[in-house]
Amino acid sequence: MDLVEGSSVVITGAASGIGEGLARECVNRGLRVALADVEKGPLDTLVDQLLAVGGTVTAGVVDVSDGAAVSAFAASVEAEFGCVDMVVANAGVIGPRRPLWEQSAQDWEWIIGVNLLGVSNTWAPFLPNMVKRGTGHLVATSSIAGLAPAMSGNAPYATTKHGIVGMAEVLRMDLAEVAPDIGVTVLFPGPVRTRIREAVRNRPDSLGGPDGVAAFSSDPQFDVESIEPRDVALHLLAALARGDRYVMPNSEYVESTATHLVEVAEGLRTSNTANSTR
Ligand code: NAI
Known about the structure:
This protein has about 280 residues and is α/β, with parallel strands linked by helices. The chain has nine helices and seven strands; from the N terminus they run E-H-E-H-E-H-E-H-H-E-H-E-H-H-E-H. It has helices at about 15-30, 40-50, 65-80, 105-125, 125-135, 155-180, 220-225, 230-240, 255-275, and strands at about 10, 30-35, 55-60, 85-90, 135-140, 185, 245. A seven-stranded parallel sheet has the order 3-2-1-4-5-6-7, sandwiched between helices. Helix 6 (about 155-180) links the parallel strand 5 (about 135-140) and strand 6 (about 185). The longest helix has 24 residues, at about 155-180. 1,4-dihydronicotinamide adenine dinucleotide (NAI) binds next to helix 1 and strand 2. 1,4-dihydronicotinamide adenine dinucleotide binds near residues 13, 17, 64, 114 and 192.
């Protein structure tokens, strides 16, 4: 993906953490940014800061689990920017840390709505114009938990982050038939110093609200290994310039993730061999 001065980038979950880091780095490089988030206060503050340094910025308070709201945002961004070059579906939440049998229907509904439907809701409205032009790039933020078991107690989160991988792979197949130059990249962060563990702050009342829901408690080792949002942004932008499809900014997690994927492949081979020699 050639992002040049004046290219336009949409980022969801932009008011904090990885999305904010990416927005700042895009503006540093002279890109135009359209930012979406559910948190109005932090979003307004960020927009003011980016405008103050000369950025071209538009923004909307948008819940990515609401497809109609994202479509309306997409229409307004396209009207304002004329053409959108890259869409980064980054917004995501993690629920309370508890075993699968204690996760409530509302835990699942909230996390699937934001992390999984939020990605298709964000990509879909921009795709018709990208397909017409034959250019553009789609990015989604998955997680190391989207490729390998990262931590107990986060089944809904891991499910959605694996789902993003499937969504991206099939989107690539869909695009290969009509617009093969449109790129799709999945970002797999490991621990990053953000507000993700306080994600329940944004849980809507209709799904149980933020009160009485425990914040996610992660492994202390994750704190030690956390990198900064800006590191993620720099790593991602370098990877996009090369056209990488799979991007993992926390290099210490690459080998353990690859080992897990090889174990899956070996499990399939072993099982197949055992069956065929019966
Ligand atoms: P963060 O909590 O600092 O930022 C997430 C942003 O998404 C917040 O500004 C929040 O208001 C917004 N958001 C939440 N629900 C939303 C909704 N329904 N619609 C629109 N915006 C919404 O967390 P972080 O870490 O920056 O998260 C960004 C992405 O990175 C997420 O998809 C997360 O799952 C992923 N990730 C983060 C890791 C970490 O260690 N921080 C590790 C792996 C993946």
